[in-house]
Amino acid sequence: KFYDFKKKFKDVGIVTGDVQINETGQVVVMTTEILRSILYREIFDKLNDVCYVIFDEAHYINDEDRGVVWEEIIIMLPKHIKLVLLSATIPNCHEVAGWIGKVRQQTINVILTKKRPIPLEHVLYYGDSSANKNAKLTVVDTDGQFLIGNFLAVKRILNEKSEKQSSYSNKFYGPQHFSFLLDHLKCANKLPCIIFSFSRKGCSETCEKISKNLDFTTKTEKFLIKKFFESCISRITKKDQDLPQIRLFRQYCQKGFAVHHSGILPLLREIVEILFQRELVKVLFATETFAMGVNMPAKTVVFSSLKKFSGNDNGNRYLLSSEYIQMAGRAGRRGQDTTGSVYIMSTFHLPSEQEFKEMTIGNAMRVTSRFRLTYGMIMNLLSGNKTDNQRIENVMRSNFSEFIQFSSFQETRKKILRLEVELNKFKTNSISCAVCCDLQAYFEMCQKYSTI
């Protein structure tokens, strides 16, 4: 975001845990954690002249770990600041807007569009040799229609292969099959691509193995990559320039490959992002964090798997619709591509027809409150001279969870009042006949009333 804004505006700054540049700029890009820290430390002079706070990827309110930070900020920001929230995956956006409007005492406008600027085609890829490297079937077309016949055909093909070769399922998912896929994508003019993997180790290992046998850059591109890479690392010491990760990435990038995840040095992540934007990196292996807040679309997105580790005792689970939509949405470059391509590596663990349909074209998961009290929050809210909207009592009653419960209570009250009116009508008119439907209707209404 910092580099995007630097191209358009002169006075731009950035504040993160790693970098602080021009903190007093007219436009400052920062993480939500940094903004919360400013609010906690009561550095209000930094916010006095702020007109707008823009939250990109606002569905992060739903994040189990970080969502509480977003709620705290929305509650505690000074009332003169107006908010803009951007997201492609908040199905209950009117409910979220209602909460923000109540907390901020401001009118909140919701602007919706269900049309993608660049339609997506979703493909199941099952090539397992150089002879059938083009083996694929479209399962969701550019109109968003699920093609059940093609989906079942791929499952049938995979089942037949599994029966013929018992060890096939163990061999199917490996670097060799990525080579077949990348060869196909290159021939079909579908590069650059992002390959999403759900482990940092998987990203690094696959990139290392594939880059030994494939090379996607021309002599001119190699020269430009080398020149840019050397220019960037010249800022660090000679000793650091010889770090194993830097040596490895120099080799990757020269061939048009790169890796992007939180375990990569910040400098290398920056280099990779710029090279990818310039389309000098053709194949990027990334974890799902790349889909959050990094504005770098590709022509094609590849899912190495549709399963990820859930972080609890249940082990692996299929992607949620909102997760799939976020990652698939990186396919298609505005102004360059007429359609974006989403490839799914077909293994023997494809979800059922219904699960697959819900994942690819279903509704995103509703945003719910992740608010929770922590010791740190309590200590910060109780210390110093807080404004009214920073008092712990206000934060407790203004969070999204309280709003949802209050709204539910209000809706229940309305239902009770409606039923009471209907029941009173029966009492006033009296029930004319025990055999007719009057008594049955009265009984059913009484049941509803008692349930509520």
UniProtKB/TrEMBL annotation:
Presence of the UniProt keyword Zinc-finger in the record: no
Source organism superkingdom: Eukaryota
Reaction catalysis annotation: ATP + H2O = ADP + phosphate + H(+)
Keywords: ATP-binding, Helicase, Hydrolase, Nucleotide-binding
Stored Gene3D superfamilies: P-loop containing nucleotide triphosphate hydrolases
UniProt domain Helicase ATP-binding: residue ranges: 1-108
ATP-binding in keyword set: yes
GO molecular function: ATP binding; hydrolase activity; nucleic acid binding; RNA helicase activity
Ranges in a coiled coil: none
GO cellular component assignments: Ski complex
BP-aspect Gene Ontology terms: nuclear-transcribed mRNA catabolic process, 3'-5' exonucleolytic nonsense-mediated decay
Domain Helicase C-terminal: 209-382
Name recorded for this polypeptide: Helicase SKI2W (Trinotate prediction)
Organism encoding this protein: Myxobolus squamalis (Myxosporean)
